[in-house]
Amino acid sequence: MENTGTSLFAKLIAERLGLRERQVEGTLTLLDDGATIPFIARYRKERTGALDEVQIAAIAEQNDRLKELAKRKETITKTITEQEKMTPELEARIAACWDATELEDLYLPYKPKRRTRAQAAREQGLEPLALMLIRGEQNPERAAQRFISDAVATIEDALRGAQDIIAEMVSEDERSRQTVRGTFRRTAYITSKVVKAKADTDEAQKFSDYFDWSEPLKRCSSHRLLAMRRGEAEGILRVSITVDDDECIEKLQRQWNTRPQSSSAREGRGCAMLVAEAVADGYKRLLCPSIENEFAASSKECADEEAIRVFAENLRQLLLGAPLGQKRVMGIDPGFRTGCKVVCLDAQGNLLHHEAIFPHPPVRKPAEAADALASMIRRYKIEAIAIGNGTASRETKGFVEMVVKELSAAASPAHKEEPGVGLYVVSEDGASVYSASKVARDEFPDEDVTVRGAVSIGRRLMDPLAELVKIDPKSIGVGQYQHDVDQTKLKRSLDQTVESCVNSVGVNLNTASVHLLTYVSGLGPTLAKNIVDYRRENGAFTSRAQLKKVPRLGPAAFEQCAGFLRIADAKNPLDNSAVHPERYALVEQIAKDQGCKVIDLIQQKDIRARVDIKRYVSADVGLPTLTDIMQELEKPGRDPREALEEFEFDSRVTSIDDLVPGMELPGIVTNITNFGAFVDIGVHQDGLVHISQLADKYVSHPTDVVHLHQHVRVRVTEVDRCRSRISLSMRTA
């Protein structure tokens, strides 16, 4: 992009996002140079004025939109020019226009279209008659008489053709479109009706709330709009967006019925009446459907953006879930008929052993299952057990607790003081998708899907981020209507979210999988594979500098990725921190000025306290970067995620039939939407805490009160067993 283009785009984006033009210019330059969003946000704060990832992503998105609009303007200009209809005024308006809707309004009269009634009338030479009617110059019948020809048999045919031309002129007129668009924007209603033939079907019942629904479009929440559109797509509902047609027609007729120029008032009224009829026809047949489609598309786009935003935030919270860390873990995929698949993993997540146990009906061999479980816990020195939250989860957890208690009771006095085996219930969402994926087949080519699924459950406990990045985010179960929204936008948003999470936590260069490395800034599938291949052939990395020896990992990729890769126990302690290698010399200079080594600077708080970072401000290193460096030296390689907590469901309830309004129960937040939060209370059916029930105070958005996997106390307010719906409250009674 040329400098003039960059400058213009920077100005437009700055105005739209409320940022300084200089911030946007710096960000666009970095993006054009190939820098990633995480890298820019972390290591180029001086260039952007310390913009965060959300702001940088918004700049990138606006930049892409403006580039697309610029291409569209080129196409439109070329098309109109080829038609020999371009005027200096129109060309100037197109050049100055950076609003997509306004641009399409300008183009509409010149846009190639299917043969229309107005086009046929123009071919019959009736356009001058249409203009006469609009001006009200003479008796309409007398004027029409002059246009009788072989193609136009009667005066009525001539007037009808002229009205068709006027109707199309109205529908393509920029001012008319803005008038109707303004009415839609202020007063449009969205209405949903059930298709009568489908009303009594089972599949229609999930849309029963929208069988007869109407509300102002501007107040319609994203989840309601997407629900209605899904019902429409499935043939259950008919959805329309409407306004007061009479009001719109009256406004348009006032615009188009110009003061008659004829000396005869009667003749003027005749023209005015014909024009009024044409305006009404143009509105009903052409203009209103066009604007309705426009608002249907724009409201769907807004609903998509909100749904994607909620999905991305939920995904972020899930990926940044508390990790157990490198412990020896047992993963259990619970089940009744097929038994419980049990896997034992070492502290690095490698599979050591697997087998199936059958503690539940119909096979029911609890004694054998208990012996096998106890034997595996002892043999593989298991420190924690992860149990999937699907079918038979509660029953399996109770059984495992019994075995663990018996083991603890039988332990020798010397082992009594050792920490017990922790029990954790882990979300199974997406485990089956992973187990059948190419990633899982490559990891465990000789194991079946049940073993792979149990391994995934165990690894999720150790490090949710490292395991969940292997699964398509849409399969993790933290969004709503993910299949109804724009899939390209959804994928881009979720990929950005995964990339952001991976880089904010950092990645262990010597243990990370290819899939995890793929999301590291500046890498991707090819370089990630090359890193793992190099690691396999040459042994563990001992310094970040060795990355430069990885095939095809050049200086640009090294700059982008190095700061996000960690090497535990590296010779240079900065290699296990978020300090970028480009700033190692600066840190060494700070240490030298303090008369110590870098490791002393990290380990001794009093030395760090003496550092005056303002002394080290330079042309390319400002206070934001220096502040980040000092914070990282305080806790190098710190994990931003919370500590893991154990959780217990209420033993009184195991199914929806056990629930009684008024019960107070512990629960885990499993999903968050605009209208509330879903909470698992251990009955195999999540309950909904509506946004109005989240707190005693007003809540503008559920994420202001709760986050994914948060442990909460809820009260049962209603149980609808027919529709398997549970209503919960977090308000004080």
Task: Compile the SSE list and pairings.
Layout: H1 3-17, H2 21-32, H3 37-43, H4 45-48, H5 53-82, H6 88-96, H7 100-107, H8 117-123, H9 127-135, H10 140-145, H11 155-172, H12 174-187, E1 189-194, E2 212-216, H13 222-233, E3 237-242, H14 245-256, H15 265-319, E4 329-333, E5 340-345, E6 351-357, H16 366-379, E7 384-388, H17 393-410, E8 422-426, H18 431-435, H19 438-443, H20 449-462, H21 464-468, H22 487-505, E9 507-508, H23 514-518, H24 525-538, H25 555-561, E10 565-566, H26 584-593, H27 598-603, H28 605-610, H29 623-634, E11 664-673, E12 676-680, E13 687-690, E14 711-720, E15 725-729
Parallel strand pairs: 4-7, 7-8, 9-10, 13-15
Antiparallel strand pairs: 1-2, 1-3, 4-5, 5-6, 11-12, 11-14, 12-13, 14-15
Helix pairs in contact: 1-2, 1-5, 2-5, 8-11, 9-11, 9-15, 11-15, 12-14, 12-15, 13-15, 14-15, 15-22, 16-17
